């Protein structure tokens, strides 16, 4: 299980690094737009990500 957890963490880091590496200007604009979101909108996005991740884990 530990190997799978480290592998999953590694993949998250790879995916998180793709946009800033490929298009730093787009990443900066997106980050600036995200700072303008309200707390409730950010929480909803976080909840949606958690839910989707749990669903994918359950199906796998």
From TrEMBL:
The chain crosses the membrane at residues 40-59. Keywords: Membrane, Transmembrane, Transmembrane helix. This is DUF2065 domain-containing protein. InterPro entries: DUF2065 (IPR019201). It comes from the Bacteria.
